[in-house]
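Pasting as-is:
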Amino acid sequence: MNRDVVGMTVTGKRNPGSMERTGSVRRSVANIAGALLAVITFGTLAYHFVEGWNYFDSLYMTVITITTTGYGEIYRMSAGGRIISMLLMFFGIGIFFYAINSFVPLIIERRMEMSAKKLSEIRDHIIVCGFGLMGREIANELPKDRVVIIDSSAEKVSIARENGYLAVLGDATEEEVLEKANVRRAKALIACMSDAANVFTIMAAKDLNPGIYAMAILRSPDAEKKMRRINVDFVLSPYKDTARKVVTTLQKPATVEFIESIMSRQGETLTLEKMEVRVDNKSLKELDLRGRTGSTVVAIERDGRLILPEADTVLQKGDIAYLIGSDEALRRAEKILGSGS
């Protein structure tokens, strides 16, 4: 991975060419700042000696002249003072605005370097491709320090950065853009763009990082079959899923109430997770997952059948166990189910 990311490689090392450009910009800004200071000093001293004003008033008159503030003359001015004002208008105003234009690129470049450094260091993050209505809602539900936004709109990228997200400007279907988002070290990628863009983005992401968990948010329900032909881990169809939730709410409101109030209650958040069982011929009573980890097995999938477990239910190697608990409790349970200890 040796692609440049705004003057830095994805490994965090500075690009020599970028360092040279940055040094040149800084020297230029230093020269302009010196010229601006010289103009301010000249105006202050000139007003002081020609008009006899104190230094503060002379400085004030110089500043409002070169910044074109337009407050007017603070005292009645002689012909000499007006000549000084005209000189400041001809030369000082130009130098002032040229200085502003010189400072802005340096500030932008500095911010980009800081962003690139953070992107090169981030690990196990979630990449959200598309910062539209869906992308924003998804990002709002995730920890900001673990999210990287990719969008082709400069305005949306700017909004994402203003809201505290790391963001990359570009087409998410391009490998170079995914590299800038450090896709090789990402935990998951959520594609919520057009269906076609989602397909190409997930294919490119899987090629760069085969272990990444890829999720696609569909725009059209008809695209689900096409989406499942690629190596996508999860497909979410807002239209179909909303319809199912509506039907479930009408038919089994208690189920929805459980998910909404218990699974996302305030305080410690509970999560439903599925795990592959590697232990063999051990009962839930023997494992005592609830006592040892704080998580609970709510269902077991075996040979295509769903089993509602009891204390004496024996787990077999290859079972899929569905557990509910906090993130920490589930991590502890995964160690037990994986090692059989």
